[in-house]
Amino acid sequence: MEERADAARLLRGFERRFLAARALRSFPWQSLEEKLRDSSGSELLLDILQKTVKHPLCVKHPPSMKYSRSFLSELIRKHEAVHTEPLDELYQALAEVLTAEDPTHCHRSYLLPSGDSVTLCESTAIVSHGTTGLVTWNAALYLAEWAVENPAVFAHRMVLELGSGAGLTGLAICKTCRPRAYVFSDCHSHVLEQLRGNVLLNGFLLEPSIDAWAQHPGPHTPEAERPWVTVARLDWDTVTAPQLAAFQPDIVLAADVLYCPETVLSLVGVLRKLSTCRKDQRAPDAYVAFTIRNPETCQLFTTELGQAGIPWEEVPRHDQKLFPYEEHSEMAILKLTL
């Protein structure tokens, strides 16, 4: 019984990491080697194949071919180190990806506790078209995990996300937290184009603008499963307080946007404008998630918040780990009272 549970955990580890195209070094290779040494059969490797390269999500929305080739090569190496008989299915899978073309975009998928998933089309380059917004960063995963564990924060609320990037956080919230409406926003044209594609890829309808909803928000009934969703171009340096007020946000989110002093100052500027957006006599609450890369940048953010008169508190850390991300990243979420 315990052995079966161990195998299930191992399979789950491979599945989650492969679907999200995480670094191969993060996979539980050592556990696999131990299992292979203790087992004469090849069932486990065939199960891993079905949970990774042959997974229905990967067949429909494939990861990078280069990534699949590297993964299968490593899997074959692990098999050959223990078993002398070649496993035809592994070589056949490798032959298929060796002959496939590698496009400029690939897919990553993240499994949700509900059994649903979020699939993103991302650029294969980390910095592409002069922006970092075309890939998913760790703090977006961390914030999405916290949101999934705290759906009441978002239920039946209007959410405005700043710097949505590839869209992971918002799509996870839209699929699990039942917001009334969700506005994804960014300022880079290539990011916005990809963001719209990811919203549609995950089965949501895109409203053309905020205006129709703002004029006729209507009652949100429990039967209305899908939130109202739009993607907006929002430049933090030029947007005005009235333009922000038009979104009527209850909740404001931002993840992994504190990567240099310039963006910190721009973010605090837009948060200051949002603090004037009163809805039913109260300003929206804001949650900002970030990876602590440079403590000085984080210090600058909290100092600037203080100077802007925006109180903040750190949200208690969570150990949820629904999604695979870099193990050694230190992350935090601040709740701001605008």
TrEMBL record:
<dbReference type="InterPro" id="IPR019410">
    <property type="entry name" value="Methyltransf_16"/>
</dbReference>
<dbReference type="Pfam" id="PF10294">
    <property type="entry name" value="Methyltransf_16"/>
</dbReference>
<dbReference type="GO" id="GO:0032991">
    <property type="term" value="C:protein-containing complex"/>
</dbReference>
<keyword id="KW-0949">S-adenosyl-L-methionine</keyword>
<protein>
    <recommendedName>
        <fullName>FAM86 N-terminal domain-containing protein</fullName>
    </recommendedName>
</protein>
<keyword id="KW-0489">Methyltransferase</keyword>
<dbReference type="GO" id="GO:0008168">
    <property type="term" value="F:methyltransferase activity"/>
</dbReference>
<dbReference type="Pfam" id="PF14904">
    <property type="entry name" value="FAM86"/>
</dbReference>
<dbReference type="GO" id="GO:0032259">
    <property type="term" value="P:methylation"/>
</dbReference>
<dbReference type="InterPro" id="IPR029426">
    <property type="entry name" value="FAM86_N"/>
</dbReference>
<keyword id="KW-0808">Transferase</keyword>
<feature type="domain" description="FAM86 N-terminal">
    <location>
        <begin position="9"/>
        <end position="97"/>
    </location>
</feature>
<dbReference type="InterPro" id="IPR029063">
    <property type="entry name" value="SAM-dependent_MTases_sf"/>
</dbReference>
<comment type="similarity">
    <text>Belongs to the class I-like SAM-binding methyltransferase superfamily. EEF2KMT family.</text>
</comment>
